[in-house]
TrEMBL record:
Top-rank lineage group of the source organism: Bacteria
Source organism (scientific name): Butyrivibrio fibrisolvens DSM 3071
Full protein name: Nucleoside triphosphate pyrophosphatase
Reaction catalysis annotation: a 2'-deoxyribonucleoside 5'-triphosphate + H2O = a 2'-deoxyribonucleoside 5'-phosphate + diphosphate + H(+); a ribonucleoside 5'-triphosphate + H2O = a ribonucleoside 5'-phosphate + diphosphate + H(+)
EC number(s) from the headed UniProt entry: 3.6.1.9
CDD domains: Maf
PANTHER family according to UniProt: BIFUNCTIONAL DTTP/UTP PYROPHOSPHATASE/METHYLTRANSFERASE PROTEIN-RELATED (PTHR43213), BIFUNCTIONAL DTTP_UTP PYROPHOSPHATASE_METHYLTRANSFERASE PROTEIN-RELATED (PTHR43213:SF5)
Length: 211
């Protein structure tokens, strides 16, 4: 968010996670919505269970921006904070890898993805009230990651650091694990944890950017 020059405040969500899908992209979209909804309700006092919700979408074509795109999307009509929720998972052979709880889980995750390809999927939800309506945008961004072969010694050395234990898939591409990443296909920042380019383009498309 700092990279995009946006003004923001980080507020952690504490609510219970409820998942009704096994498909990774749907899981992260559900979790990102739950996070955003929790904070939106706290900040506005609006219970989304009792409030009509207008769901918007962007077809991915951000090239033709003009005031015509905004329609009734005027900054002056925004009646609440713009709340963004995000959740990231690693998907390997159709299995979701979250954050490892201990060294054994970290070892198993790294042993699995080394020498292989996996996907990093981030779900993003944007919630705000505008013109008397509560509006939402929900999307998932996917990046393919290719990892070099790792020796048992390299795996043990890595999981003996603090780096794996607060990250989905037990690694951080921006940290020490970066030397084992052969390449990626897609958004690098998505692997870090937030697809800032797509998020920024989406916010700009709906005239929600506040610097």
């Amino acid at each position: 968010m700092q990279q995009a020059g946006l003004t923001f405040e980080v507020i952690p969500a504490r609510g219970e996670e409820v998942i009704t899908s096994e498909e990774p992209a749907e899981v992260v979209k559900q979790l990102s919505f739950q996070k955003a909804a929790e904070i939106f309700s706290k900040e506005t006092g609006i219970n989304l269970e009792n409030e009509p919700l207008e769901t918007l979408s962007v077809n991915g074509n951000f090239d033709k921006k003009s005031s015509d795109n905004f329609g009734d999307f005027s900054k002056e009509d925004i009646e609440s904070p713009v709340v963004i929720g995000a959740d990231t998972v690693v998907s390997y052979k159709q299995k979701i890898l979250g954050k490892p709880k201990d060294k054994e889980q970290a070892r198993k995750m790294i042993s699995g993805i080394q020498g292989e390809e996996h996907k990093v999927i981030t779900g993003v939800t944007v919630l705000w009230k505008q013109g008397g309506k509560v509006r939402s945008i929900v999307f998932a961004e996917e990046t393919q990651v290719f990892v070099y072969d790792m020796t048992d010694e390299e795996i043990e050395a890595y999981i003996s650091t603090d780096e794996p234990y607060d990250k989905a898939g037990a690694y951080g591409i921006q940290g020490m694990f970066g030397v084992y990443v052969k390449g990626i296909h897609g958004d690098y920042n998505n692997v870090v944890g937030l697809p800032i380019a797509r998020l920024y383009q989406t916010l700009t498309y709906y005239n929600l950017v506040v610097h």
